Structures are given as structure tokens and as C-alpha cells.
Amino acid sequence: MSLPDTMSIDSDTASVQILPFDLNEEPPLYTQDRDADIDINADTHMLDSRLLKEHDYHLVRNGKQWLSLSLKDRARTGDELPHFTQGSTLSGSVRLVLGPKGAVIRSVSVSIIGELTSPVYYSRFLTMTRQLYVSDVNDLDTSLPDPPEVSEGKLDGEHSWPFAIRLPKGIRIVLSDKEGHNFLLPPTLSKHASKVQVKYKLVARVKKGILSSDNRLEAEFDYTPRFRPSQPSILRQIATMENQPLVGPDEDPAGWKVLDPIVLRGKYLMKRLIEALMSNNQAFHCSSPVLCSGYNDTSHVVHYML
């Protein structure tokens, strides 16, 4: 049974909730009909027939691997960053190797975390946690899916816990207007030239005794939403096939999303007060998706603004 997962977001203007899998209202998507939703419950695991590759991550102590995280995906080689798409299940295992004297391990858990960062802003928009092992009933979180049985006492020797966490459809954000809005999980954005980054990672956490610090082992992965855009408008297709300029929004309204114009006011060369009407039209299915237009009684002023 699918249950909502734990969430957290560091923001003064928004709160976030993971969309459960049986939510009636779908996140907005591109479809054949731009005003309709597509079925994003389709099983995407069978779309790629490549064999599963295993990515292994380790924490080493005294030359020995004592904490290991294994993650499976369909990467072409084990050297690639793990990659998952909408509806994918992150599966693998957490392995713990302890000495013969044993150790007090309060809990072992694994979490999927999504983060948005910029020079002035940070938001953890996704947190999905599964507890794999718990030795203290006070550490058991019964609000999480499939909580483990409490196993009292020390751990010694080698132990391994498998996990499987399905990525959600998206997130529901309550913005400053107090209304909930559905959004797809954003794709990974980690270009060095970009000041804004979206990153996903899988984190294994070992919680020890009260006087001991916790240990974390992280594995970053890429995420890509999976959806198919609708066909371009007829006039757009004709222009593309004949290598002609695109038809504008006035003649091809089906190929554009026309936004309301805005009025810009300012000073020209720090002296003359100017006012211009600016329109911003976004094209569907085009590598040059934005058309900006400016209107003013002086042409060189508009040219200066654009």
C-alpha cells in the first residue's frame, strides 16, 4: 500500500507534501491536449532493457569497508552516475560489517533527498525515508512505510538490509496564496555555469549510541522526468519542413502561449522618462521558444530596451 512520505522544506513562503500514488489530481504535464493530463502511472522500468548495473559506495575504517551502500540502475557502465526517470524504483542494499565485540546501533535508515540551491536560497523539497533496522523502540518511526521490527541488543558480524523506494509522481506545494499546487519533480540541474542547482541523492544513515556521532554515506544520482510533448501546430510543422521562418502568434495561435503584456517604465540615458509595452510569447516545441516585442513611440528607445 502506498503511503505519503515524510517531507521537509526550508522556506518561509511554501510548504511541501509528496503526492501519493493514488492522487486523483495529477501534476501538470505536456500531452496531446495541453489542458489534459497523461497517465504517469505507466511502468517505466520496462522501457529500458539494459541489464542492471550496481553502484557501490563505502565508508572505510582501519583499512576495512564497514558501511556499504549498493544502488542498482540501468547505466551503460558502472562509472556513470546512477540515473532514474519518473516512476523508477531505487533498489539496493545497506551492508554493515562490525567486529566480534559488537556495537550499539540504534537504527539504520536510507533516504532519498532532493535539494534546490542557489547563492541566496536553499530548499529541501523532497525527503523519503525508510527505516531498515531499529534496536530502540523510541527510535521507531511508525509514520514511515513498512517500519521494521525492533531488535534489541548489540549488533556484531555482517548484516545486510535490502530496500526499494519508488520515486513519487511529484510534490504538492502550498505557496503564499495558501493554495496547493502540483508540480512534477524537477530534473537534475548541476551545470557548473548555473547558479541554481537541483540535486538528488540517496543517503544511508547509521545512528549509534547517545555518546557517538551518526555516520552518513551519500550517493548522488541524476533524475529526469519522463513525458512526451504533443505535436507542433500544423503551421509550425510546415515551416520546419520547408525551412521557413516560424509563423508568429498572430497567425499561428495554436503554436504559441501568449502572455499578457506588461508596462515598463524607466529613464533613458538617466534623463528622459520612457514607457514601453512589452509582450512575451512562448512557443511550443521550438528551440527558440521566446518571442519578445516592445512598443514605444520612439523606435531607438525600444531597440535600446531589447
From TrEMBL:
Domain of life: Eukaryota
InterPro entries for the chain: Arrestin-like_C
Protein known as: Arrestin-like N-terminal domain-containing protein
Organism: Antrodiella citrinella
Lineage per the UniProt record: Eukaryota, Fungi, Dikarya, Basidiomycota, Agaricomycotina
